[in-house]
Design goal:
- The chain has about 400 residues and is an alpha/beta fold.
- It has 2 domains: about 150 residues, Lyase, Ornithine Decarboxylase, Chain A, domain 1 (Beta Barrel); about 240 residues, Alanine racemase (TIM Barrel), CATH 3.20.20.10.
- It is built from 12 helices and 21 strands.
- The strands form 3 sheets. Strands 4, 14, 15, 16, 17, 18, 19, 20 and 21 form a 9-stranded mixed sheet that branches.
- It is globular and about 70 Å long.
- The model has no long low-confidence stretch (mean pLDDT about 95).
- The structure holds pyridoxal-5'-phosphate.
Length: about 400
């Protein structure tokens, strides 16, 4: 969003008006920003046969999926319902990768029936898969290269205690299982966790995977997961995509020559594609002055955007109702009966009761992690595309809270 003639606008659309028209709390997505991010990644790897698989757990609104599909994106899914939503959005089964962790074998069988690519991250499951399908269903194997990189401990997946992937040190065992069951391995995968800052670190992890990949004869793709860091604070360092494209693209090319064949390079960005495109609009119900603090209490809470409370995540906050007001210090808190603080000691343009605040970087893991705690309904969602704001999810109602309850008394 940007300031134009004292109004915050997204692609020419006045954000405050969107908040007033559709009501708050409200998730608003900038469709053109999503397209820009997709093209940026594509452009950085223009010399590589790159396939982008949007990790849709970040945001599963079907319109976001359709928008990315239109750009040429595939899909990374972690549950059978994400697979089904992807198919409903128009993705072909072969464009979808299913990367489950600790799901039942029944669920994996359903994904096989739906015809999507299967990613396996456990030796016992690989064995089971081999017994069931031999070489009739191709698979990808998720490897944990144990590369530690940035971020909060909740989002690191590469460490030795991680439940994700098959340890790279178990690769001999994997090879035995593959040979014994005649399993057709067409992909190798790693996803070391979010917030990798450094193109060199990323490339080093990839090298470990390439070393292993040489031993598999039928590969069609190498999937390097995600880990792209996006800026939450103004001075945050972000992944330099162009540099990554240059360094890793070249290294991948060398690998393909050694392998003897051109392979596809896959990435599965979630945040990178949709985080910055999203704004969460809330209205200030009360300004509360205590002995030590001025609180701005808003019509939302951890039930709608839990990242600040769960990951200690920083979401920048702007008072879009008062762009020129004098700046004062506020703690922005929710209405839930927990300590649900969106931001401590933030400088905001003077806040009045009734003002609308915009929380930035709300496009990823915002709505998808929301809940009905305190019997609050989940927010509506709006997509701004080509100068038009459209409702893409209705606000829930009391009926939604009750619809699966069975009265037995
Ligand atoms: C969550 C996840 C991603 C996306 O991570 P981001 O940090 O949102 O880019 C990619 N791949 C897998 C397997 C994941 O679980």
């Amino acid at each position: 969003m940007q300031l134009e003639n004292d109004r915050y606008v997204i692609g020419g659309v006045d954000l405050l008006k969107v908040g007033e028209q559709f009501g708050t709390p409200l998730y608003v997505y900038d469709g053109n920003k999503i397209i820009d991010q997709y093209n940026k990644l594509k452009q950085a790897f223009k010399k590589t046969d790159l396939k982008i698989k949007y990790a849709c757990k970040a945001n599963t609104n079907i319109n976001i999926l359709k928008l990315l599909h239109k750009q040429g994106s595939g899909l990374d899914t972690v549950s059978i319902n994400e697979v089904r939503i992807g198919l409903l959005a128009g993705f072909a089964p072969e464009e979808i990768l299913y990367t489950p962790n600790c799901v039942s074998f029944e669920e994996i069988k359903k994904a096989v029936e739906l015809g999507v690519n299967i990613n396996i991250d456990n030796i016992s499951v690989l064995e089971h898969f081999g017994h069931e399908y031999q070489n009739k269903v191709p698979v990808c194997i998720r490897i944990n290269p144990h590369v530690l990189a940035g971020g909060n401990s909740h989002i690191q997946t590469g460490h030795i205690d991680s439940k994700f992937g098959i340890s790279i040190h178990q690769i001999r065992h994997v090879m035995r299982v593959v040979k014994a069951n005649n399993i057709n391995v067409v992909g190798l995968h790693m996803h070391t966790g979010s917030d990798i800052l450094d193109a060199e670190v990323f490339t080093r992890a990839a090298e470990l995977l390439f070393d292993v990949a040489i031993e598999f004869e039928n590969l069609q793709y190498i999937d390097l997961g995600s880990g792209f860091k996006v800026g939450y604070r103004a001075d945050d360092i972000t992944t330099d995509i162009d540099r990554l494209g240059e360094i890793l693209g070249e290294r991948f090319d060398v690998f393909c020559k050694a392998y003897g064949r051109e392979l596809e390079l896959w990435f599965e960005p979630g945040k990178f594609l949709v985080s910055e495109a999203g704004y969460f609009l809330v209205q200030v119900n009360v300004v509360k002055q205590t002995v030590s603090t001025v609180f701005a209490g808003v019509d939302s809470g951890q039930n709608h955007l839990i990242r600040p409370m769960m990951y200690d995540a920083y979401h920048h906050i702007t008072n879009i109702s008062n762009p020129n007001g004098v700046q004062r210090i506020y703690s922005i808190v929710g209405y839930i009966c927990e300590t649900d603080t969106f931001g401590y000691d933030r400088k905001l343009n003077e806040v009045h009761e009734g003002d609308i605040l915009a929380m930035h970087n709300a496009g990823a893991y915002g709505f998808t992690m929301s809940s009905n705690y305190n019997a609050r309904v989940r927010p509506a969602e709006v997509l701004i595309l080509d100068g038009k704001a459209q409702l893409i999810r209705e606000r829930e109602t009391l009926d939604d809270l009750l619809k699966n309850q069975i009265e037995v008394l």
